[in-house]
Amino acid sequence: MKKSERLNQELLYLTDKKIFHLKELEEKFAISERTALRDITDLEQLGLAFYSETGRSGGYHITNSKLLLPIRFNTQEINAIFFALQAIKNLSETPYSNEYQKIQTKLLKNLPQKLQNQISLQKEFVHYISQPSLNEVPFLLCYLKLVWIIA
Fold first, then answer.
1. Does 97 fall in a domain?
2. Residue 8 in domain
3. What are the pLDDT tens digits along the chain (151 aa)?
4. pTM tops 0.70
5. Whole-angstrom distance, CA of residue 124 vs CA of residue 93
6. 83 and 122 share a domain?
7. Which residues, listed in sequence order, are joined to residue 61 by a DSSP beta bridge?
8. Cβ atoms of residues 35 and 58 within 8 Å
9. Can you give the residue ranges of the HTH deoR-type domain (predicted)?
């Protein structure tokens, strides 16, 4: 696993934790103690706020309650996202149908030019054929809002 991928996975792993130990990272990611220490330094530079405490109940205590992670995708994942957005846009009518193009535009603007060109080619050469949905779910948005209220 590349270092950048490992750091991303470590950030995801630590997202819901309040405290972690060096051994956890070593075991979870099959890395040495020295690599784990370097990773902790790198995680701090990426915005993970923590302090260390020594002793029996010590460890690394994460200070911010919820991490907002910069998410990094590899090229395959980016292509999969755009492919899925294009495909889902043609599947059926949903309460979010108007949002798919906005999502594509925002994501595309944050990509390097080379990837933007690749995505444009993908959109140009891959055509989706679909028929209008026969099964409209008239109260789907109401159901979703109810779930948001309950949660």
1. yes
2. yes
3. 788 889 888 888 887 788 899 999 999 999 999 999 999 999 888 878 888 888 877 888 888 655 555 677 888 888 888 888 877 776 666 677 777 878 888 888 878 888 888 888 877 777 767 666 556 666 666 766 777 677 5
4. no
5. 23
6. yes
7. 19, 51
8. no
9. 3-58
